[in-house]
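step: validate -> pass
step: tokenize input -> pass
step: predict -> running
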Amino acid sequence: MESNADGARAGKAVPAGANRWTMRDVMTFVIFNIVIIMVTMIVKMAEDAVLSPQNTFFVGSWLFPLVSTPFYLVMADRIGKRGVLSGSILLFGILYTFMGGVYCAPVAVVGAVVGELAMWGRGAYRNIVRAAAGFFVYWATFACYGIVPYLLFRDAYMEQLGAYYSASDVAAMVAQYTELPWILLMLALFAAGTALGAVVGAKFLKKHVRKAKIA
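step: predict -> pass
step: emit ->
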């Protein structure tokens, strides 16, 4: 019997309840998001250990999505239902909120809405290009976590950073998160990292996951 996943990939109609999450979907969502967050945090700690704050901008912006996109694509393909992207954005936003960035919560809500609208339509989560494009919204939201504090409480935030970083580092960070050319470069790096990660993830999906009928 053809599964809902196979029907969605073939563009056929699926039952009305096909978008209802199962316990397996929830477990897949939780496990893969933990992996994505842990991988990102490990890369972030390694990056901070070897690079100055003003130079992490040029590495993390493409490296974070590169290492996490393959995991996201597998998760999206295995679940294949509405809410995967918005839930992932909200989960990451909640984490950053509890880490002290209260402003991250409303940013995450906006990102979740935009992300889910971008994924509207049948079979979107099992379309690798669309899934990768949606995951870029995840990282664009992440970029906003760095931009918003400079916009809302710049002086207080700069004073806080000054207690940990040199004046040159703080000046560079302010420019990178407030000046349009730098912001556009950051988004372009996020897009490049997501695209490259999608290439890796697509090969793994086609060669292993779908071939083994895991998804």
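step: describe -> The mean pLDDT is 86.
step: cleanup -> pass
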